[in-house]
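User: Quick sanity check before I run a bigger batch. Here is a single chain. Can you write out its predicted 3D structure?
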Amino acid sequence: MTQLAINYGIVLYELNIPKEELNTQRKILHETEELIACLTSPIVSIKAKHNVIDKIFKGKFKNFLKKLCDYNSMSYIHEILKAYDLHKNEIEGKLEGELLYVAPPTETQLQEIKAFLCKKYNKKSVELQMKQTPELLGGFVIRTGNYEFDWSYAGRLKALQQKLVKK
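Assistant: Done. Predicted structure follows.
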């Protein structure tokens, strides 16, 4: 992630755009790559880009996108939104991750996993995306940032196989 995207992500966070409004505007950007192509094109004038933005977006986010176009930074928009999420989570003490499982964990198990992650990363809360993954054979895998905790049967079998091959 570039420093430019990180800086813009922080600025976007400081604009205090309501969550629902920002999610709606993000959805538009993610679903229409043609729009981003138009807003990053050197052939399209700044005035035309501003007109397109005025017709599609609203509020502070609209003005933010205009500034990105003015400074030829619109091509970083996805990276900026990612930097925004990271900064927001850091400020709010929230950790995001993914839980892969064969059988869904019980509520107690899920709370224990979240408590483990909160303690490990010194965070206030954890938000996990749940994904059923039958190829794990059993157990579960937790992915957060650059780390993976593999307590799956498939992972243990793979580790055992690697140990046996080394000897």
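The first helix runs from residue 3 to 14.

User: Great, the batch can go ahead then.
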